Write a sequence for this structure.
C-alpha cells in the first residue's frame, strides 16, 4: 500500500501537519530505522513498516483483547548492525492475560530468531502499560500497568504497576535499585516515557476513573527506587515516602498516553518542550519546564481536531503523532487512524517575506501595537528573532 501526504497549516503555531499514513487499525507505537524506514505497531496485532513510501505488513501476532494487544516497539540503539527489534504485547493463556517482551532479528522487512526477553507480566483487558524505550544509558525501559489490581503497584515482588529497567538481553543491570527489573513503583498505568537533554526521565500516567475518584492524570519526574503512590494517594495528596507528580490534571481528564521531548531542526521554536498525546482529552499537550522541573507553561494544541491521540515521538524529520479513533472510544473519520508528522510551516533556513514588512506596516499604521507585539512573539518562538536573556 502506498502512502500519501496531505498537509494542514497552522500559522499561529508556525507549523504544518502532514498525514503520512491513513486507514490504520489503532496504531500504538512508532520507531525509525537509520535507513529511513518507519516501523509501527497496531494494537490489533500487526507490525507494519513504511519503506520508500510503501506500507507493508511484516507480521501478525495473536494478541489479547480489550486495551491490551500489540503495544510498544523499539529498535535497538545498534539496529544498523544487529537489526534487533523489541515488541511488547498482550496475550491470553488459559484463563489469564499476560504481557511479554520479545526480541526479533529484522531482515528485509521480515522477522526471525524470536527471543523472549521478559514474560509473565501481569495483564488484563485494561491497564497493561506497554511503552518501551531505550534510555540515554542504553538500558531498555518498560512501563507496566497494575492489571486492574491496584495492590500490585506497591508489591515489589510483582512487575505490575512499575517502570522497569533491563539490559537489552533481558538481564538485570547491576545498578538497579532492587534485585529485580523494577526501577520505580506505585504506578497505575504509565504509558509515556522520555528523557530531556540532561538525562531526566519524565513519564505520563493515567489517573483513576470510578473507584478512588476520577481524573488526576499525572506527569511524573522518575527517580530510581521512588514510590509514586498508587493506590494510596492521587493528585496533591501526600504521604511520607511517596513522590508527588510535578503536574496533574485535577478534575480534568487527559488520558495521557505517549510522550516526547522535542529536539530537532524541523521545529526550532519547540526545542526542549515536552509533548503528551492525549486520548480522552483529544489534544496534544505541550509543557515547558524550568531547570527545576517546575511547569512554567502548558497549552492544549489541536484540541478536538484529530480526535484521540495515542503516541507522540521525536522523529528524524519532525514530530510524529499517532491517532487512535478506531479503538471503540473515538469518532473516526474516513481516513482514521493516521500517522501525522508536524514540521515548521516555514523554511527554517529562510526568513519569510512578511518579516521584512511588519515594521513598515506598523510605521504606516496598517497594524496596531498589539498586532506588532504578536508578530514579535511569533518571531521569537520561531527562532527567527533572537533575544538575549
Amino acid at each position: 500500500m502506498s502512502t500519501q501526504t496531505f498537509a494542514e497549516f497552522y500559522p499561529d503555531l508556525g507549523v504544518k501537519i502532514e498525514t503520512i499514513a491513513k486507514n490504520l487499525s489503532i496504531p500504538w507505537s512508532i520507531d525509525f530505522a537509520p535507513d529511513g524506514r518507519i516501523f509501527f505497531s497496531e494494537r490489533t496485532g500487526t507490525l507494519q513498516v513504511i519503506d520508500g513510501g510503501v506500507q507493508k505488513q511484516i507480521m501478525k501476532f495473536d494478541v489479547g483483547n480489550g486495551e491490551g494487544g500489540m503495544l510498544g516497539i523499539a529498535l535497538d540503539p545498534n539496529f544498523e548492525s544487529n537489526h534487533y527489534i523489541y515488541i511488547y504485547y498482550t496475550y491470553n493463556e488459559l484463563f489469564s492475560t499476560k504481557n511479554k517482551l520479545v526480541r526479533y532479528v529484522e531482515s528485509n522487512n521480515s522477522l526471525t530468531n524470536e527471543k523472549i526477553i521478559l514474560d509473565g507480566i501481569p495483564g488484563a483487558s485494561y491497564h497493561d502499560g506497554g511503552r518501551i524505550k531505550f534510555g540515554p544509558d542504553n538500558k531498555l525501559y518498560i512501563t507496566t500497568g497494575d492489571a486492574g489490581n491496584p495492590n500490585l503497584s506497591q508489591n515489589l515482588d510483582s512487575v505490575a504497576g512499575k517502570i522497569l529497567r533491563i539490559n537489552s538481553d533481558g538481564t538485570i543491570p547491576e545498578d538497579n535499585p532492587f534485585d529485580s527489573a523494577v526501577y520505580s513503583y506505585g504506578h497505575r498505568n504509565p504509558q509515556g516515557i522520555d528523557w530531556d537533554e540532561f538525562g531526566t526521565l519524565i513519564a505520563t500516567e493515567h489517573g483513576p476513573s470510578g473507584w478512588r475518584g476520577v481524573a488526576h492524570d499525572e506527569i511524573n519526574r522518575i527517580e530510581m527506587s521512588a514510590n509514586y503512590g498508587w493506590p494510596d494517594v492521587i493528585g496533591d495528596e501526600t504521604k511520607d515516602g511517596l513522590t508527588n507528580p510535578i503536574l496533574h490534571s485535577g478534575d480534568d481528564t487527559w488520558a495521557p498516553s505517549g510522550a516526547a521531548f522535542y529536539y530537532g531542526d524541523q521545529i526550532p521554536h519547540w526545542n526542549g518542550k515536552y509533548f503528551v498525546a492525549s486520548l480522552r482529552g483529544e489534544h496534544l499537550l505541550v509543557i515547558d519546564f524550568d531547570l527545576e522541573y517546575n511547569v512554567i507553561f502548558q497549552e492544549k494544541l489541536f484540541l478536538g481536531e484529530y480526535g484521540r491521540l495515542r503516541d507522540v515521538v521525536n522523529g528524524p524529520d519532525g514530530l510524529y503523532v499517532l491517532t487512535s479513533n478506531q479503538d471503540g472510544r473515538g469518532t473516526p473519520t474516513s481516513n482514521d487512524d493516521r500517522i501525522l508528522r508536524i514540521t515548521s510551516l516555514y523554511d527554517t533556513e529562510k526568513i519569510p517575506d512578511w518579516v521584512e514588512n511588519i515594521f513598515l506596516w506598523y510605521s504606516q499604521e496598517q497594524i496596531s501595537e498589539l498586532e506588532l507585539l504578536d508578530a514579535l512573539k511569533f518571531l521569537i518562538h520561531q527562532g527567527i528573532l533572537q533575544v538575549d536573556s
Notes: The CA atoms of residues 162 and 185 lie 4 Å apart. Residues 351-389 form one domain.
